[in-house]
Amino acid sequence: MTKLERPDSVPGTTYKLRWLEGLQDETYYLTITNIEYKGKLRPFEVFFTSTSPRHYPWMTALARMISAVFRRGENVKFVATELQEVFDPRGPQHVAGAKHKSLLSYIGKVIEQHMVDIGYLEEMPWPVEDIKLKELHTTTPKVEVTQTTYERGVGEAIVAKEKSPDYPKARQHKEDLDDFDVRF
Fold first, then answer.
1. Does residue 55 sit in the same domain as residue 125?
2. Which residue has the higher pLDDT, 47 or 7?
3. Quick one: 82 and 164 in the same domain?
């Protein structure tokens, strides 16, 4: 087992990934650096960033683990394959015409395509539906939000209540009660 040493500078590529989290579109940036080893480019490090700070812990942990495996100097094809097997219990998403089991599966697909692009993988281990990385982030899935009859009724009731002439008085009374603090 050979551990590769990090040179002062390494070239890399950053990919912009979009993923739908609930009703909000999240943007993730995946940077993969490369190093020449035995006359061939190979992935060396992985970095993640996101527009949401709530993802920082798992993204940092995943990036450190993947980078540690990449620096070993052995065959690292399995990293992309294993990530692609992770599924999301909320269901898959379609991004740019390709179905991804989860965000991690999508990341695995991007890493695999990167390995092909730099010549680390000679060909895809299995057929892929014409995935082009540059097109993966160009389209955002469209989601149509519909309301159930119950939700529509609740919304209409709230609007009617707010239009009522007694609503401002009732609201002020509730705020007065909230400000009233009794301690024993």
1. yes
2. 47
3. no
